[in-house]
Amino acid sequence: MSSASLDNLAIHTITTKPWAIETAATKFAAAGVKGITVWRDTLNGRDIAKTGQLLRDQGLSIVSLCRGGFFPGATAADRAKALDDNRKAIAEAHALGAPLIVLVCGAVPGQPLTESRKQIQDGIAALLPDCTAANVKLAIEPLHPMYADSRSAVNTLGQANDMVEAIKSPLIGVAADVYHLWWDPALEQEIARCGRLKALFAYHVCDWRTPTIDLLNDRGLMGEGCIPLRQIRSWVEAAGFKGFNEVEVFSNRLWAMDQDEYLKRIVSAYSAHV
Amino acid sequence: MSSASLDNLAIHTITTKPWAIETAATKFAAAGVKGITVWRDTLNGRDIAKTGQLLRDQGLSIVSLCRGGFFPGATAADRAKALDDNRKAIAEAHALGAPLIVLVCGAVPGQPLTESRKQIQDGIAALLPDCTAANVKLAIEPLHPMYADSRSAVNTLGQANDMVEAIKSPLIGVAADVYHLWWDPALEQEIARCGRLKALFAYHVCDWRTPTIDLLNDRGLMGEGCIPLRQIRSWVEAAGFKGFNEVEVFSNRLWAMDQDEYLKRIVSAYSAHV
User: Fold this and answer.
1) In the predicted model, what is the mean pLDDT of residues B80-106?
2) DSSP states of chain B
3) Which of B 218-237 lie inside 8 A of A, CB atoms?
4) Is the pLDDT of residue B1 over 80?
5) Would you call B179 an interface residue with chain A, using a CB distance cutoff of 8 Å?
6) How many Cβ contacts (< 8 angstroms) between chains A and B?
7) What's the predicted TM-score (pTM) here?
8) Per-residue pLDDT band at A1 (split at 50, 70, 90)
9) pLDDT (average), residues B95-119
């Protein structure tokens, strides 16, 4: 399998967290990056519509807004508050010009996972009118099982596909992230199924390091770990995916390095390993 | 669901790692613990048969020896070395009087998981004559997906059951540990399947803390986390399991406390939460 096209390279703002979004946009564009996924915290204090225009003026496609979700709550009031925040995210995506919001679906420690999953599905369904009005899609991102306690009760692509099938809306799909999914023996078949559902909305890449020393912020740059990136991309493309390969890396180690140097490494790691 | 019987309480030597095995045996027995699972490192420098007798003299049932496995290797020589170590473990179990060895099956970072899984299955099959001769069983322990890089390519109970079915020997079964399996949406059905296969050889309990700050050594004592222990034990017992509930906790935090005090907490947490 050959290298992924640079035309499909997108980077998440969190990957180069030390940079303000304006800096990231300028640097990404100068490095030949074509797409950007915007984390909501980078929009704090900005005019969102103007920031969207600034990104497009740099020639960047806005791939998605990260993130909505966290639907489960112990009380109805908690769950209503979560819906309010998701509606705010939909409005932000609309203003920014992002066609998609990635959902980290949430979980409440100690609440049965089956209950959290039901609350997630109900929460997404409740947002459908807002999505239609704003023309914004939602992507369920299945999270690694090590986040099942508090971040997401949706932990496999199979579960995300099941939810997409149950909700049955062209606005609801999946964000597949190799970090969360690479270990799954059913991955190839579930990627194919996601393609048949026309629900494969986004594809995120990074790597899994050995040893991993932090559950959240020790992801590897592509090539630094054990994830079979070429193989997984071949499955994703066989499923009909033609979108961006989004580099999403949370790493205390990489955030601490010179970010210009890091961006060069991202681009070369993308060519060498994605 | 009522409390688990104290007659079914076993503790792994690693749970109270600061204690030598002789100390652990005396203390466990005095606390009313009925079973012990022995980690191999505690046998260093001991006469293994005499140590087994010492445990039995305290009235303890020897539940299993931890651990064999780590079958995958990049070269045939590595894999042969792994088999040698497993044969050594079988001899140790026989000398100790342990009827069962728990297998942490292994993985080689960057080697395809499918290849590691094949090497695991081949490795277990190669040990069958040794198991028969020593009258020692082997339990495949599916490990949490966060260990798929380097510790086990068997990450769900479904995969372990598949392997048991493929190997087809009454000597080969499964060790089900709530820490590794609790998140799995297929858990109830796979526990039932494991029971039908007569392959549910061991059941390990602890808890999952929020937040978990270390991938290896931050397990919780039962009740400190979010695992639905009573529910899972009900599934295990419905599947016909009548063995020990083995407390296996790796925790820098709990190893640092007074171990007599900790043992009291283990016994009360067992009654309150398992």
Assistant:
1) 98
2) -PPPPGGGEEEEGGGGTTS-HHHHHHHHHHTT--EEEEEGGGGTTS-HHHHHHHHHHTT-EEEEEEEEE----SSHHHHHHHHHHHHHHHHHHHHHT-SEEEEE-B--TTS-HHHHHHHHHHHHHHHHHHHHHHT-EEEE----GGGTTTTBS--SHHHHHHHHHHH--TTEEEEEEHHHHTT-TTHHHHHHHHHHTT-EEEEEE-B--SS---SSSBPBPTTSS---HHHHHHHHHHTT--S-EEE---BHHHHTS-HHHHHHHHHHHHHHH-
3) 225-226, 228, 231
4) no
5) no
6) 70
7) 0.97
8) confident
9) 98
